Amino acid sequence: RILLKDALKSYPFLAAMSVSFLANWVLFGMRNTILPLFAEEKLGASNSTIGLGFTVAAIVQGIALVYVGKIADFRGRKFALMLGSFVILSGIATVIVSSNWWYYFLAMALFGIGGAFESTSASSVVGDLFGGKGGRVIALFQMAGDFGLIISPVLLGWLVDAHSYRTAFIATAAVFSLTLLLSAKMPETRKLNQQN
Fold first, then answer.
1. 68, CA 20 to 30 Å: which among 23, 77, 115, 196?
2. With 60 as the cut, is the pLDDT of residue 196 above it?
């Protein structure tokens, strides 16, 4: 049995929870709520174009998932997390500089790839640490991600209303860049799983 107080003393677990929170902030808060509105209002995308963008993201993420697990096992969780963070940040940057609807497709594809890396690798870190023995620990990890998707639409919507879409995107990029620091400081946990 893994106690919550012990799990919360683990930096890799705290980092994985933070990455999950921030990834859901981007992928569910920004990508799924304000990005479609931005694409329609500012980039002139039609409803079918917006829907097709989500299809592109889902297909790209599905394909990426086939390879992400192997990369996380071969190169390590830390490498996969940092790569995923970089790809998602590239997607946000694409949105920030966008001036045409095709930027929207490129960003959605990048979010699909980055999301595959972040979700798989963060979950793998938790699995490495606890081996599926802590039900409440796993639930807390899941709740961290859920909290990101709950609060981000509200905060980003407020930023759009009070300032602009690009202000919300820039703020998201600034906050999400923390995942690079969190991942860089994380010790590799793959070896722990190999030892068990």
1. 196
2. no
